[in-house]
Design goal:
Two copies of one chain form a homodimer. By secondary structure, chain A is of the alpha/beta class. Among the domains of chain A are: 159 residues, no CATH class; 140 residues, Rossmann fold (3-Layer(aba) Sandwich), CATH 3.40.50. Helix content of chain A is 33%, strand content 12%. Chain A is built from 15 helices and twelve strands. In chain A, the strands form two sheets. In chain A, strands 2-1-3-4-5-6 form a six-stranded parallel sheet. In chain A, strand 7, helix 9 and strand 8 form a beta-alpha-beta unit. At the A-B interface, helix 1, helix 15 and strand 12 of A face helix 1, helix 2, helix 15 and strand 12 of B. Chains A, B: Keywords: Glycosyltransferase, Golgi apparatus, Membrane, Signal-anchor, Transferase, Transmembrane, Transmembrane helix. Chains A, B: It comes from Papaver atlanticum.
Chain lengths: 457, 457
């Protein structure tokens, strides 16, 4: 301290000033992550660094999404109708929509995506919301189509047939679908590109079913393709969403302590189509000692029991339901309960990013219902292998958490952005296609050449 | 100057030092374009800026490509065989491959891509070459498959049947294809993912035809789908490449001065399949005064004449050949001669980025061969509209210049990177698919719902 000079040489000050000025320009006048510089300008920069990640200079601009300002009845109005049907004392429309609560259900992605788009601060999102449709790459249609399916009163209002589309004040999902299309088909941006650049959410397998052929050019956000034909939806054009999990995530560490039962399942024993396997699984599993398999419908109490069961089992059975997907899979994942998937037609969310073989066990239906087979196979899996699965489950958990800021919502948008090049291609191609008489539809496909694989794990 | 203080206050120095230190950390310890920070870490940064381009934080890492070190005979060896067959005095193998010249031809993309990948400085490319296959997202197989098709001697060597696969020193493309597959099928990275992550170039419609079913999982770089079935190739899985233009680009400005003929075509009058339209077009066009339509084969002299014709015509006819594509289209584009495309099945390169309706006129075959129709339609197009087309042609020209540093090569790689999410999806999905008996192939498709569009311009 005694040696400290009270007076520094101007040279040092000059150097410091220069560095400080450079810092100022570099730090505060450049965005943290500058947008792609052109090849020319970047190579002319006096401080350019030839980094190996040079490709980012060619990275595409962010995908711009326009949120349609739909008439209120298609968004908040659906929630209000739902609530009003269950509690007629509620006064609607509510004054402050921020008090409006979307009901807890497995198809709530429509609410999460809408809420995300109207947020002020969308920092970290893979898409940018634009307010001018002229700027948009894609158009999001935020109709709450899944809630609309169940917005009717649970019990018929006396004297009114709820199935009728005529009943004055009674909510009709079909009328809503028709009304949405009437509104949309008037929009210039809908007409401009035949809907290729429009995004619809229809997470419930029956959502938008009346108008699906009119929107099939669009990107559909769905749970599976169980009720959709090949020309309506596909892995190439559309996005598979996870259901919202309905039970609480398991908070503890990985491990088999406290997970005393081998296999757990609770749900409806009787289902249609692929879901018929359920009854057969009940038959081969219900007498097994370390297996908990229960018939039960959705309720607060059954969710409590399912939580307890999934948090205390090593494996969780996921048989097909009426369609190949079900929310139970995502309940199992957040419970760190290794899913045992018996659903031959299942499509899984975000499968480009997630290797499901690392987090789940796949068994084809025929093998799964052989007496004794499933439990014998599961009992053979060593503890280290179980811990490996659990560790992987933990790592991918965020993909299934709609309320995680870096979770499901961002991942759905990322998936949507991946569709953009094909959307643009189809728009441009359709414009110049000449009239052709074809023997088969004009389709571009990606086919699995897998002739069959033994179920393995 | 007289007021300059020789001695600065320590406070200022402290501030400057602090700023300089911050600058040092911020500038020199952070790459120019840092890789995606996690959402959490970026929002905790003391100097985080909430920019509208926040999405770049979620931008994917660069796509990493491994270039197979194929036995020499599949790359430089093909060029040598080709040259040797034409000039037996050449001594091969050459000592210095940098002297080896790939022959000028329309299928030279295989040479350009290979040369690009082995370049030291790949700055500005949408992909990064990795030297360890473990790091790779995609694997490039650089066999010169198109040149291999024509590497045989033009005239049979006396006493040897060039069509025989047995002839000792005679080059056999079919043997090369078989030999490539034998080599590849031994590679662990080929076996690992059933070839989904492999990239092949087969620009000539006949290239790799013998083994196409063994490589069809891969990304194929092709000119069109004329000789490929739907389960072998598609717009979704593969990439359409432009041919290398064979005539010199038009250097001048846009304009109609010096472009006195209305429509130009020079090429083979007689072709198979869709190309049969050519003879009909000759019949309706050859008597028109301001139309130049000539029968001619590939030669240096015909290229000179084609250059002159394309540089001095407003429109250039592009009828289908044996397959829907042909290099003539790209000759026309770089000539700023507005292409008139009469090829009902044509697929076009980079159509997500290029709106071909802005640079070309599409006429279906039936309409094009109606006597008087085509010329009448073209004569009606006003000069302003012609200049608009030319301006657009000028803007997209770089996409068709293989030697432009920001041209075709980068665009092909960009197209390849766009396939990666679907490649990863198919890899993961195939691993967990259970054996299924299906009535039809397991395909995901993107279908045009266009039932027909009147040719317009």
């Amino acid at each position: 301290m005694g040696r400290k000079s009270p007076c520094l040489k101007p040279t040092l000050v000059t150097i410091l000033t220069f560095v400080a000025l450079y810092a100022f320009f570099n730090t505060f006048l450049t965005p943290i992550n500058p947008n792609p510089l052109s090849f020319e300008s970047s190579s002319n920069s006096p401080f350019s660094i030839l980094s190996s990640s040079s490709s980012s200079f060619n990275s595409p601009p962010p995908v711009k999404v326009y949120l349609y300002d739909l008439p209120r009845k298609f968004t908040y109005g659906v929630v209000e109708s739902y609530l009003k049907a269950r509690d007629p004392s509620i006064s609607i429309p509510v004054d402050d929509v921020s008090n409006l609560k979307y009901p807890g259900n497995q198809h709530s992605a429509e609410w999460w995506l809408f809420s995300d788009l109207i947020k002020e601060d969308r920092y970290g999102s893979p898409i940018v919301r634009v307010l001018d449709p002229e700027d948009a790459d894609l158009f999001y249609v935020p109709f709450f189509s899944s809630l609309s399916l169940v917005a009717n009163p649970i019990r018929p209002v006396s004297g009114v047939n709820v199935n009728s589309n005529v009943g004055g004040s009674v909510y009709s999902d079909e009328e809503m679908q028709q009304s949405l299309m009437e509104w949309l088909e008037e929009q210039i941006y809908w007409k401009r590109n035949n809907g290729w650049d429009h995004v619809f959410i229809c997470q419930d397998p029956n959502a938008l079913y009346k108008v699906i052929d009119r929107i099939k050019n669009g990107i559909l956000l769905v749970s599976d393709f169980g009720r959709l034909t090949r020309d309506q939806a596909s892995l190439v054009k559309d996005v598979i969403l996870p259901y919202s999990h309905r039970i609480n995530p398991f908070i503890g560490e990985i491990g088999v302590e406290g997970r005393n039962s081998l296999l757990f399942f609770m749900g409806n024993r009787y289902r249609k189509e692929g879901g018929k396997v359920r009854d057969l699984l009940f038959q081969v599993l219900e007498s097994e000692e370390d297996v908990i398999i229960k018939h039960g419908a959705q309720s607060r109490e059954s969710r409590r029991m399912a939580t307890q069961g999934m948090h205390s089992s090593k494996f969780c059975l996921h048989p097909a339901g009426d369609t190949p997907s079900a929310c139970r899979l995502f309940d199992a994942i957040v419970s760190l309960c290794i899913p045992v998937i018996v659903s031959d037609q299942i499509e899984l969310p975000f499968e480009d990013a997630i290797d499901y073989k690392k987090i789940a066990i796949f068994v084809d239906s025929d093998t799964a219902v052989k007496p004794g087979h499933l439990t014998k196979m599961l009992r053979k899996i060593r503890t280290e292998k179980i811990l490996e699965y659990q560790q992987e489950l933990k790592e991918v958990k965020r993909y299934f958490e709609y309320d995680d800021p870096n979770g499901t919502v961002n991942e759905i948008w990322r998936q949507v952005t991946l569709k953009l090049p094909l959307v643009k291609l189809m728009i441009n191609r359709d414009k110049r296609l000449v009239r052709r008489e074809l023997n088969e539809p004009d389709c571009s496909c990606l086919c699995s050449n897998k002739t069959g694989a033994r179920p393995t794990f």
